[in-house]
Automatic annotation (TrEMBL):
A motif ('KMSKS' region) lies at residues 230-234. A motif ('HIGH' region) lies at residues 40-49. L-tyrosine binds at Y35, Y170, Q174. This is Tyrosine--tRNA ligase. One of its GO terms (cellular component) is cytosol. Its main location: cytoplasm. Catalyzes the attachment of tyrosine to tRNA(Tyr) in a two-step reaction: tyrosine is first activated by ATP to form Tyr-AMP and then transferred to the acceptor end of tRNA(Tyr). InterPro entries: aa-tRNA-synth_I_CS, aa-tRNA-synth_Ic, Rossmann-like_a/b/a_fold, S4_RNA-bd_sf, SYY-like_C, Tyr-tRNA-ligase, Tyr-tRNA-ligase_bac-type, Tyr-tRNA-ligase_bac_1. It is found in: Cytoplasm. Its EC number is 6.1.1.1. The gene is tyrS. Residues 341-413 form the Tyrosine--tRNA ligase SYY-like C-terminal domain. It comes from Pengzhenrongella frigida. ATP binds at K233. GO terms for molecular function: ATP binding; protein homodimerization activity; RNA binding; tyrosine-tRNA ligase activity.
Amino acid sequence: MSDVLDELQWRGLVAQTTDVEALRAALGAAPVTLYCGFDPTAPSLHIGNLVQILTVRRLQLAGHKPLALVGGATGLIGDPKMVGERTLNPPDVVADWVDRIRRQIEPLLDFDGPAAARMVNNLEWTAPMSAIDFLRDVGKHYRLGTMLAKDTVARRLNSEQGISFTEFSYQILQGMDYLELHRRYGASLQTGGNDQWGNLLSGVELIRKVEQASVHALTTPLITKADGTKFGKTETGTIWLDPELTSPYAFYQFWLNADDADVTGYLKIFTFRTRDEIGELERAVEERPAARAAQRALAYDVTALVHGAAAADKVVAASAALFGRGDLHDLDEPTTAAAVAELPTAAGSAGDLLADLFAATGVVTSKAAARRAIAEGGASVNNVKITDEAAALEAGDLLHGRWAVLRRGKRTLAVVDAGR
RNA sequence: GGCGGGUUACCCGAGUGGCCAAAGGGGGCUGACUGUAAAUCAGCUGGCAACGCCUACGGGGGUUCGAAUCCCUCACCCGCCA
């Protein structure tokens, strides 16, 4: 890996930079201290944030020093979204989210060694600042014209909902962060998603004005899907890194279901596989798409990265058992138990209405939806299609006298546990 | 502060007294075809103890046998004027 920037470009991770050649020179000359921020707007990071973390990790592997900023301050204000004003979250909630997010980032970066990462929180320098200091020392450097011209701000001003002063001010806070990290740790590169470009520039310009220093910014592209739909969402919602919010099984399944057209791009972005390995997998998709070798590699790698190799092995085995060709009754008890442990579960027993059980496990959202699914031929028990809306669970349906696997459509699964 | 326009289901958007659980589109779900993929075609898409009942057209109140539709009021958004 001679040139990290080449590496990032090859992986499709560079959308915009302040000055590519200046950045390339800086990254080639000496270890650069870089920063990337994560705002606590939810109790967990999601796979969109993973793009940022892994980009930072790649830079770290090339010898550069990351500062992972968790926005205890910016999270209290809210980055303006394209559509609609955010609801302010209570400070204690944000503080809790800060902790959770820190713990998610920690295992993904290296906090020891010569390029050790450091965790920072912008609440530390933002909270003690008075309104007067803010307006005199920082506000004076900001031109309203520039601020109003920012994409998101302009869009919001033209929207029906407008924008509050609070959200409008967000870009200044983020600019202050970069300045502060530049002063404290010599940060000279900020990375982020392309939607953050304006916010990154805010800091670059502030540093230029206050410190007469030229620093860099680099954004990663918005991850897109070949079919044009939004990346990172499923019918169930966002794919979170927190195993409580998105089970490792569901996480693995998400990646396994990547489109052929998207999978190579995802391998570049979300795994540490080499160019050769990815080229190999790309060929495999072309030659034997049904084998989905690339999807399996992708799903395994990302799951192992986020949830650990042990968890990844478990969900691979569970997926094999549940989607295997054989009769579920033929699986031995330990295999069944392990597979079933990965699925959403509801208690039930022989005699219960299947429609009620489908609703109870969350495979469908309501009993009416369960009846609909059965009527449409989209519901099965242990991979056997059911057709009678009024059918009940039978004792013979229970695998090893205990479990019944409910399925809606091809890949939405849950289990009924009749206990022991 | 004044005047005008607006707020409808997951989203966009029709609907100006009963035929409205609410057109149409998007999205989503299911089926067929497949590979737990994409594309395509078809059906479905508020809930429940279900020939009925409940919830739902920004919040609250009213008129009426009957309201998403009319009136009052509150909130928020947009525009013009000050």
